[in-house]
Each structure stands twice: as C-alpha cells, then as structure tokens.
Amino acid sequence: MMQALALAERARGLTSPNPLVGALVVKDGGVVGEGYHARAGAPHAERVALTAAGPKARGATLYLTLEPCVHQGRTPPCVPALLDAGLRRVVVAVLDPNPRVNGAGAAALSQAGLEVSVGCLEAEARRLNRPFFTWVTERRPFVTLKVAMSLDGKISSWNRASRWITGVEARGEAHRLRSEADAIVVGIGTVLADDPELTVRLDPPWQREPYRVIVDSQARTPTSARVLSAGSPGRTLVAVTESADAQRVTALEQRGAQVLTLPARDGRVDLTALVAELARREVTALLLEGGGELNAGFLEAGLVDRVAVFVAPMLLGGQDAPTPVRGPGRGLKEAFRLTGMTARPVGEDLLIEGDIARGDEDVHGHC
Q: What range defines the domain where residue 263 resides?
C-alpha cells in the first residue's frame, strides 16, 4: 500500500477535482501491474494497473488507495473492470467520501465474492487527499496559508520597499506549492503594492493554470495589473461586492477577467461565500498568499486548514512594518494552534508547516 500511495503522489497537482489514486496488482509475492490516475478524464488507477497486469490479474490481489467507483463520471465505473479481471482480493486504504460511492464500491466487490479489506494505511491515504476530502465533505477548498517573513515576523520592511524576503530556493518551493493549488488568492492590497502575476513558474512549465483570484471589494484592481495578462484572461477572478463601481467592473471584464459579485460582510467580500463559489468551480485546493488583513479574515472565518511559513534569516524591525496576520488579534487561550509541525531548510531559509488544530481525532489504519 505504501508503494501504491507513492504512485498516487506522482500526479500531485494534476488530477483535480479528482483525487490522487494509486494501484498495485500483486500475485505470488510479486508486482504484476501498477498505475496511477494521471489527470481528470484519464483512466483511473485501477484500470491502468489491471491493463498492465493483463491475464496475470486473475487470482491476484489489488492494492488501491481509494475505494473504486460505481458510478459514471468523466470515465466509466471501475467496479465492473475489477470483477472482469478475476481478482481474488482487493485491499482498499480508505472509502471514497463521495455519497455516490461511499461504501458501495467495496460492498459490490464483496457481494460478488471477492475478499475485501478496508483501512490499510487509512490515515496516510486521507492525508494524501485532504483537498478532495474537504471539497466533498465540506463543499469548500482545502486552504493553505502561505507566508514569507523575516525572523522577527515581518512580511515587508516599514516602507514596503522590500520585494523579496526569502531566497531563490524558497521562491522555487513557493511555486511548487502554487502548482498543487487550483486557485491562488491575494487581496487588493497585495496587487496594488506588489503587482504580482500569480502564475506557476517551474521548469519544465507546469501543465495546469490555477485560477488567479483577487479579493477586491471595490474593484480597485488596475486594468494594467500584470495578473490580468499573466495567462489565460478567464483564469483571473476578481471578487467584488455589489457596492463596487460599475464602470471599474466593466473595465475589468473588458480586460478578460471574470468578476464575481459576492455578498458583503462588514463592507468586504464575504470569504465564506467566496470559497463556496470557488468550490462550485471545482477548486479543491486553495493557496492563500494574502496580506495580513486577508489572512486574518480567512483565519477568523475558520477557513484555513494548513500553514506554510518561509522564514528568512534576517531581522527587519519597525513597528509599522506589516506582519502576516493582522486584524484585532487573539489572546493566548484563543490563539490559533498548530499541530503536526515540521521544519526543514530550503536554501538559506526555513520552511515551517503545520495544520490548524481543530480537535479532530486521528485515524489509524492497519493492513
């Protein structure tokens, strides 16, 4: 199952809105077929593995990181293919949370006489597909808050003159995080201050183009902003409220951007409404690269799942220098706590990652 999970990981950032899935066909102690789901619309992992195994699949065991589907989606259901292959046993890491599948795939295999085992490395399989599970069960994207800051917690110098805080390696890692997202979100303040492109810049060029999303209540995004011309125009979304100036909205639409008019909360775009709209557009993973106010808004709305903080070995100081999270702040007892913390060097910088603690119980699966 570990090998099947590693196969699934190869398509990270390419399968949305589908999950990452890997499959391994084993017979007489050896692997006779393997595969993974490469992209939405492509054959599912189990079909790839069974095709590779051919006649050797008869009487074999299939290790699968996610329950096989029983419904018609972009591709045909997979359970019939498993039955036709003549498998003896199927080991599934985790059930598919999709209500159209959840337990039905495993039940159909069992009723057909196959030996079915569910729960092998379940925690690892859930972690592999946290964006998919969040999108299906909560109808919103999995949100990662990404920050680059100095050792004393500043995201820019006091006069906003510093463009890059972290080094080349860290910026490359940040683009890897972008490649795993379906949407990159910033606030209007970031657009006005930094004029970012919000594109994925990797070598070789990345195969998918995430949405570039600007939270801009009053439609202040300049028509000359680089984000409007950085890629396909329709992949830029500008979220405004009904109070936004109609002429500015029209000007943005004429530049090719999609303008989303959303409900307001305290005069600003309602972030819960924003992520719901993005979920409807099949955004399962969202990378938040906002300034302090937008980051605080997402946190207070309970919308942040994971934090990735790049820390540069420098001290900027300055009581007016911006910090990653602004807003009214919280006391120690009410602070947002992180769990599962990791830290690793990226060039001269340090990348610290962790999940927002929600009190969820850990899931432990056994093979």
A: 139-356
How many domains is the chain partitioned into structurally?
2
Clarify whether 46 is annotated catalytic.
Answer: yes
What pTM value is reported for the model? 0.93
Q: Distance between CA 121 and CA 105 in Å, rounded?
A: 18
| Residue that terminates a domain, selected from 96, 130, 164 | 130
Q: 286 is written with which tokens? A: 């969202």
DSSP state of 284: -
User: Quick one: 144 and 110 in the same domain?
Assistant: no
Could you say which of 9, 34, 46, 115 is catalytic? 46
Q: Give Cβ neighbours of residue 121 (< 8 Å, ≥ 6 apart).
A: 1, 2, 5, 93, 365, 367
- Closest Cα partner for 269 from 297, 245, 290, 291? 297
Same domain, 154 and 48: no
Q: How far apart are the first and last CA of the chain?
A: 8
List, for residues 292-351, the tens digit of each pLDDT value: 999 999 999 999 999 999 999 999 999 989 999 998 889 999 999 999 999 999 999 999
Residue 227 structure tokens: 């984000």
Residue 29 covered by a domain: yes
Whole-angstrom distance, CA of residue 273 vs CA of residue 279: 10
Query: 29-50: per-residue pLDDT in tens?
Result: 999 999 999 998 899 999 999 9
